[in-house]
Task: inverse folding
């Protein structure tokens, strides 16, 4: 099984060369599933969502998407009103449910949650949050999955802070969510947000649950060239390749491998 993990494309501020080259490379990879972990747009504008939808339509199906903190209206006349009244309408009109999307194939179960918020009781609305209801829903989906499946959760914000990362996620409820997802059998948690690829073991349970972040395809680089992840699932392990766009092509920037549970 092969997955492609994308995030933080930020149409409206995308790296156009990297985006065009990524489409070619992704089609060549012929993944079984494409996961997009949020921030498809820069400012949540209709034109940016249209550009994102047009680009994603050139990629192979199936595809599972979760929104990010940039995927709700922000700047311009009427945009704040839209943000407060229908924050995810533009996303859901084009890509389906903004919270609770799922996908299953023999040997793998993937569930998503929306960790972004249109508004919060703190100054920085870009940070993440996970509600108790979301945690219960994901737990139920994980426990209902066949025991032999690789169980994957997708959200935009890393649920726990990445040591040495270029920015924070500060997800309210994130540590509790990570712990409970591990107890429910999650093997991998896919995210984005910090614009830097990483793999990190979560400090709960048997220590085998990994959180995996992908880079950005935008001009908003934070210590790594534009890129995305290719994840290869094998019977005994999972391999993550972070691809980076440099000198007109995508090459492997870094790789990780970790054992599968059981």
Result:
């Amino acid at each position: 099984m092969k997955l492609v993990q994308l995030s933080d494309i930020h149409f409206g501020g995308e790296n156009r060369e990297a985006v065009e080259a990524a489409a070619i490379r992704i089609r060549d990879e012929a993944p079984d599933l494409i996961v997009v972990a949020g921030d498809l747009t820069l400012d949540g504008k209709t034109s940016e969502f249209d550009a994102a939808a047009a680009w994603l339509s050139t990629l192979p199906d199936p595809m599972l998407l979760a929104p990010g903190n940039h995927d709700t209206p922000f700047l311009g006349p009427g945009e704040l009103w839209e943000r407060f009244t229908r924050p995810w309408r533009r996303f859901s009109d084009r890509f389906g449910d903004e919270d609770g999307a799922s996908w299953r194939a023999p040997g793998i179960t993937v569930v998503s949650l929306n960790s972004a918020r249109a508004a919060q009781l703190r100054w920085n609305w870009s940070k993440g949050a996970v509600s108790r209801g979301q945690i219960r829903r994901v737990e139920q989906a994980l426990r209902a999955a066949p025991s032999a499946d690789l169980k994957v959760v997708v959200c935009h914000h890393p649920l726990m802070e990445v040591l040495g990362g270029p920015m924070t996620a500060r997800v309210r409820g994130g540590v509790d969510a990570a712990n409970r997802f591990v107890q429910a059998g999650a093997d991998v948690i896919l995210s984005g947000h910090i614009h830097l690829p990483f793999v990190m073991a979560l400090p709960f349970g048997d220590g085998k649950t990994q959180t995996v972040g992908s880079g950005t395809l935008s001009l908003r680089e934070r210590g790594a060239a534009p890129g995305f992840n290719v994840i290869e699932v094998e019977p005994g392990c999972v391999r993550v390749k972070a691809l980076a766009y440099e000198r007109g092509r995508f090459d492997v920037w870094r790789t990780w491998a970790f054992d599968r549970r059981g």
